[in-house]
Amino acid sequence: MTFLEFLWIWDKLNGLKLPQHHKVIGHFLEKLFTSENERKGLLMAFRNSGKSTLVGLFCAWILLKNPNLRVLVVSADHELAKKMVMHTKHIIEHHPACFGMKPVRPQEWASDRFTVRRSTVGRDPSVLARGLNANITGCRADIILCDDVEVPKTCNNSAKRKDLRTKLSELDYILIPGGMMLYIGTPHAEETIYRPKTGWQLLKLPLLNKAGESVWPERFTPKKIAEIRRATSPNKFASQMLLENVKYEESRLDIKHLKIYDLPLSYQEANGSGILKIGQTKMVSASCWWDPAFGKVGGDASVIGVVFTGEDGNYYLHDLRYLQVPEGAGSARWQCEQVARFIWDNYLPAVHLETNGIGQFLPALLRQEFARHRMGCSVVEENSRQNKAQRILGALEVPLLNGSLYAHALVMKTPFPDEMQDFNTTGHTHDDGLDTVAGCILCEPVRLPGIITFNRNRPLWRY
Fold this sequence. Notes:
This protein is α/β, with parallel strands linked by helices and 463 residues long. The chain folds into 2 domains: 3-240, Rossmann fold; 255-459, Nucleotidyltransferase, domain 5. Helix content is 32%, strand content 22%. The protein is built from 13 helices and 18 strands. The strands form 3 sheets. Strands 8, 9, 10, 11, 12, 13, 14, 15 and 16 form a 9-stranded mixed sheet that branches. The chain has a 7-stranded mixed sheet with strand order 3-4-2-5-6-1-7, with helices on one face. A hairpin with a 2-residue loop joins strand 10 and strand 11. Helix 3 (51-65) packs across helix 4 (78-94), helix 9 (331-345) crosses helix 10 and helix 11 packs across helix 13.
């Protein structure tokens, strides 16, 4: 019995018609299962397309073909994986072709695992459900089905995406040589794990075909599609219904609008005045912000940044440093030394120091450090009371959208780009670099007339 025949019988039994796209999915699954080459595949289909239902039927069918197979179902959490197992159990209990497969002993028919009647005896059940965080070290599987492992809670920032990829890589040690692995899902992130891999078979079924027509017109009529568009964001519709690799949540800080440059900061003196340029553009002011922290792993980062304003009216995020704070009693002094180096490297007249938290103990230490190096740099104490997410949006959103925010290429090698991509207003992502840059843009630039000396008698370069 082919899988399509197995599928047709089930739909007939339940008074359903077999949609065309289900035939396409069914053919893909059977071809992958019977392939003599590397049996690894990726099935991407729009939300509510019935893909998980079909995969449950597929599970029952492959056990009908070979009851000795071991199937591991992995999902974002255990409850989601268990739903797939329970669905497969229901099919085995009610599909006419599966008569006699149910085991005699009740303990072999659990909600998250079961074993059909088979000729071999083994410690691994026929089908086992596991969440991503479960311990599967001792398991072995002939077939692994990764069903909806990428969901918002497992991929809404770069750290989670990295952790997701690490956990999924462990499955290679569970799958037997020559076994089959299938990923099923829809993309929830721009850097989605659902990307075609060399040698993998791919089936991608968006809701709309190339002509813009519904691939399931009986259920997704033009009226229904219009309702979905109105009820959801453009990004969510694009990712979940059209299978495009975009951010699942709407981004207010689109990194595509950030302009990148790779030019040095050059300082010259002429007629007793200092001239500071980036490329050929003269700088007229600078704003420096330091958001200090203990810098512990997993905690807030200690970040200092500078944004220059050019005579062209653009903002230049020229330097952003995430300080690797050493442990010990001298960490505060060490941070002040690094800040002094940052100030000197960027020809800065002042630094705004956020005094929330540990920052309240640092102004005196920082002024001592400047005095020790004979640097005429001011320390401006700042106490931020505004909601952080709103402050970041207020500072960065407009310059990004109007194309006036530039960033140095070296800044793009820091965590800052990931923070931009992951940013949302819930506050559940790392945003220390974003907060520092927002502080730079929002704080009033220091512009003093005439010629003064600062930083070891350097002439003033600002207007």
